[in-house]
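Below is how a single chain appears once it has passed through the pipeline. First comes the sequence as given, then the structure the pipeline wrote out for it. We keep one example in the README because the format questions we get most often are answered faster by looking than by reading.
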Amino acid sequence: MEGACETGLVAVVRAGVLDVAYERYGDLQGWPVVLLHGFPYDPRCYDEVAGPLAEAGADVVVPYLRGYGPTRFADAETMRSGQQAALAHDLRELIDALGLHRPVVGGFDWAGERPASWRHCGRTRWPGW
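Resulting structure:
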């Protein structure tokens, strides 16, 4: 199948100040979904969700957020921040780096705030959201 992605393949993409590790499920031509884990979790919290979404036609991206797993700062000198604005910016950079168009974004726990923060930060880039 053209655009197919190996289930749960861990990849890394440069997204702003981060080299973001992420897992991807489903068809790369599917409707994009980004799932954000909370604290102190990681992508394993979506193991029972990513597969069914992919089977329904989604291109599911589950990143390791800053400070988790193999995600790293590209430059060791970059100032660290856990503020929602910084985390929302990470999300925007990841979406841009992967070339996702109007993804469905979901999260829980402290990551549940990120979609709302990101929507505000992305308003000038994606009018109508």
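The mean pLDDT is 84.

See the next section for the split statistics.
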